[in-house]
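REQUEST ID: PR-0412
SUBMITTED BY: lab tech R.K.
PRIORITY: routine
TASK: structure prediction, single protein chain
INPUT:
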Amino acid sequence: MNNIQVIADYIIEQSYDLAQRMNEEYDKEFVFSQMQREEVIELNQWRAQFIEYLGEAAKDGSYEGVWEKASEWARQSGEAAVARGIGLDEAMTTLTSWRTVLWTSIQQKLNDVPLTANDVIEMGLVINPVIDHASQIFSLAYVKSYQESIEKSQSSVLEYSVPVVGLSNDVAILPLIGELDDERARILKEVALHKCLELRNSTLILDLSGVPMVDTMVANELSQVIDSLKLIGVKTVLTGLRPEIAQAVIEIGIKFEGMTIKKNLKSAIEELQSTKTF
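STATUS: complete
OUTPUT:
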């Protein structure tokens, strides 16, 4: 066993202590601003795992054996940072700490196990690429996970913007307010079908009085919503169709066939009451 391997074994054996030193000395302000003390123990174990990978790479004289493991570790770390609400800039400030804690421990061990300049360079050529690669994977995973969380939040907001409310055992209403773009129209179709199946209503009042304009794509989506509801046995009553929207729909060529259209919500409810539907 050469001196590099002796140092590498030392890094692996001391991985938890090195992670603890990293968290409690170099990254203390960042770590304790984000976590409770009991959570730091888990972080010590998690970071110790990566330090072990660095030790294994140094011992083998190659990073190939730990490349995939380090990549997966970094990916999970990036996703966890997003889940905890840690900013990417904050997380990346810890990058230098990996090198500092590792090379400081190696420097201290040199009193017992001497290394030549070539040995140090050889270790650096193996260890540094693993740290750099992990940093890249961490950043990519962070950005991807962050974008997914934003999209999920936006989708949730859109779902709340198309509320289907039961008025009676047989009648529900879907009041729409604000701009009705392509994405919201898509969510409208999904939510309307799901909620009508859940509520088991036979009639859905679709009130458009709060919608300022409908374009070709949205009009087509509305037509598909009505057709889809018809397939599950739900009749659609359209209300609040403003003159400019009605004209635009006619110009587009969309025909809402087999559907009741009423001037306003009051008229729709009165008709449903007269037919004993409400």
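NOTES: The mean pLDDT is 84.
REVIEWED BY: pending
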